[in-house]
Amino acid sequence: MKLVSDKQPFSAHDAEATARMQALVRWASIEATPRQILAQEHLPDLLPRGTCVYVPFLPKGQFSDTLRACRHLLSVGMQPIPHVPARMAESRGQLRDWLSQLNESGVDRLLLIAGDSDAIAGPFPDTLAVLESGLLAQFQFHGIGVAAHPDGHPMADRATLIQALGIKREYARTTSTRLWVVTQFTFDANVVIDWLQSLGSILEEVPVYIGMAGPTRVKTLIAYAAQCGVGASARLMLRRPGSAKLLRAWSPDGMVRALVQYCLDNPDTLLRGIHLFPFGGLRQSAQWIQEHSGSIEDQRGQFHESSVQ
Predict the structure, then answer these.
(1) Among 140, 171, 227, 289, which residue carries the largest CB count within 10 Å?
(2) Where are the beta strands (DSSP E) in the chain?
(3) Reported CATH class of domain 14-303
(4) pLDDT tens digits for range 218-261
(5) What's the whole-model pTM score?
């Protein structure tokens, strides 16, 4: 198992590494709440056409807000990927209605998650229950994303989580569904790499997108980390040598560089891209993408899918 430090420089192939880094950033997806999306008057000035924008359906939110945000993203040339939280559906009929409205609005892919709420509102305690229901097969979604947790999950151990990914991969195979995996945000490239190695061949060719925080103040980052169950990873980051400068600000640069080096050393990796959580604000993360991508091209949404036919 080859691990790398987020401070490790690129190898001698700097040109190749730089090109790879720019590609990862250029094709980055980003998360944005319905409020952020609908309040931003000039979204196309921030994000290139075709950018995959994940739209949460928050526990205290309304599905109508998520739907409206998705429609707005489509109207400005973005690729919305709404969260569909299994535990928030009060009935099979309600989940069918959500999926139908998304499909009819032109949304062709989604992220299926269990949901942030501990309470189970209806018949779906987790994403596997949704897959087993057969509801998704009734609609023509281009692809389905599922979540993963390199830092672990409070409700399940790593072996159980990996087994669940295998079941989802088998579902994709048997239903000819295009599948991808996107992870919860983390701060440590070594944790990500160790997790990727632990997958073995369970995902076969399913692409993986690594979640990370966009530029922000560390105080803000730690607060979000605690809410999302990755506080231990954040505290570990702050205990590292040379972490004093992190007390002012966090940037994903070092983590991306480490992942690029890993990709160069492991060309068969399933890692295909990065997913930004803009805790410091949508504009700040969008500017980081622009500054690090080298160039902007109008061809982006195609990457969040696998080759499963």
Answers:
(1) 289
(2) 29-31, 52-55, 79-85, 109-113, 143-148, 179-183, 208-213, 271-277
(3) alpha beta
(4) 777 776 665 655 545 555 555 555 554 555 688 999 999 999 99
(5) 0.87
